[in-house]
Specification:
Shape: globular
Number of domains: 2
Structural class: alpha+beta
CATH class of the largest domain: Alpha Beta
Radius of gyration: 19 Å
CATH architecture of the largest domain: 2-Layer Sandwich
Helix content: 10-25%
Length: 237
């Protein structure tokens, strides 16, 4: 018995591409080697459109759309790297650096940080916004891991991998807006929480917010792509 596939034809950056109905713009772009920057997205986890770095322009609409959650439509014309988008992405990155205390030179993830790499790729040479310098906690209560809220960008990768892959639901987000924090359980210390100590949250963290105490420094990068459970989820999708 044959299964009909609803195929959509669209244009991305001048290239005509085909996609299955329900696919996201980001997925189709990456299938066709068209780069779109992201921070909150990681293959194998659900998408939430949190970082807004993957915003794209769609012909006929003044509104920028997040490529990680926007699905393809027949005849859609998408632009992924216009001057408007470049300015927008640089501003978002500057806001992330200004919001918390990201000091690359003394960060445990210096050289292996997705935020740092994206800033370099997008040409962010300085931050034009006033730094907030918030007083944020560093949780070292866990026997293996540390949570440094100064480096957190609220991408919620840790929340999603803990819920969707591990099924433990230890991590969540507390508060609203600029006062938001990722927390374990009901804001318990990480070492006193119901954490299963699997380390998946640490591996998917794009910055130095979550790190392994025994693997600090440039000699020990994170390897989110090698998590077997994420690979299984990617194959299922």
């Amino acid at each position: 018995m044959s299964v009909e596939v609803d195929v959509k034809t669209l244009e991305i950056d001048g290239h005509e591409v085909s996609a299955s109905a329900g696919q996201t713009i980001l997925a189709v772009a990456r299938e066709n080697d068209i780069p779109i920057p992201t921070l909150c997205h990681i293959d194998g986890l659900s998408d939430v459109g949190a970082c807004r770095l993957c915003l794209v322009e769609i012909a006929g609409s003044n509104k920028l759309m997040p490529a990680c959650v926007a699905t393809v439509q027949e005849g859609m014309v998408v632009s992924t790297n216009t001057e408007r988008l470049q300015k927008h992405r640089r501003l978002i990155l500057e806001m992330l650096f200004a919001e918390r205390n990201h000091i690359c030179s003394v960060c445990v993830s210096n050289g292996h940080c997705e935020l740092q790499s994206l800033a370099q790729e997008q040409g962010v040479t300085h931050v034009r916004l006033p730094y907030r310098y918030p007083e944020l906690p560093v949780d070292v209560s866990h026997e293996r891991f540390t949570a440094d809220h100064n480096r957190c960008i609220l991408c919620t990768r840790c929340v999603r991998v803990c819920a969707e892959i591990e099924g433990a639901h230890v991590w969540d987000v507390m508060g609203r807006g600029i006062d938001s924090l990722v927390i374990t359980d009901l804001h318990d210390e990480w070492g006193k929480s119901s954490c299963t100590r699997c380390g998946k949250c640490v591996q998917v963290c794009p910055t130095g917010a979550l790190f392994d105490k025994s693997k600090i420094g440039s000699e020990h990068p994170k390897y989110p792509d090698f998590l077997p459970y994420l690979n299984l989820m990617r194959e299922a999708q």
